[in-house]
Amino acid sequence: MDESKFCTGCGHAVEPDMQFCPQCGKVISGSAAEASLKDQEKEINSLVLMARRNWLIFLLAIYAIPVIIISAIALFEASSMASAIWASDEFRDWMQSHGFDFTQQNIQNYLTYAAGLGLGSGISAMISLICVYMRKMWIIAVITCLAATILCFWSIIGIIIGFLVTWMIIGSRDIFEDSTDNTGNAGS
What we know:
Layout: E1 5-6, E2 13-14, H1 32-76, H2 78-87, H3 89-97, H4 104-134, H5 138-151, H6 156-170
Antiparallel strand pairs: 1-2
Helix pairs in contact: 1-4, 2-4, 4-5, 5-6
């Protein structure tokens, strides 16, 4: 009985115990070399996924943490910040030269609204960061990152970076544990 197989790459006859085709060098299907190659591929994919996750955590953290801190301070100090701005002669000259008729209360309201939007954006980014860190709730991570981006509408650079990070999270569904089925395969 002839137990030889054929190479799937070039069709050359190969013996059952061969790991590579002697003609073209392709790994023989069902060989130990193929199993080893698949194990190495899984390990590399795992490292790539962890690197992607670490980048997402880093990008979300460098946005969320400072924005939350600065916005919280601005929210609580809006009155004193408005007073300092109002007391500035340069601001009053600028306002007068441009024909604006702001009051100190208008400035305080603006600072309060801006700080509130910033705080909402930072908290949304932090929720997304937590989801990425825990590798759970992919859809929540996407939605909260998108919300952080939209609440950052006053910054063109912030919007661009926010959409890029949101896109990275959308493309990183396979790092989330809840995106796999019971067999461990990535969900579609």
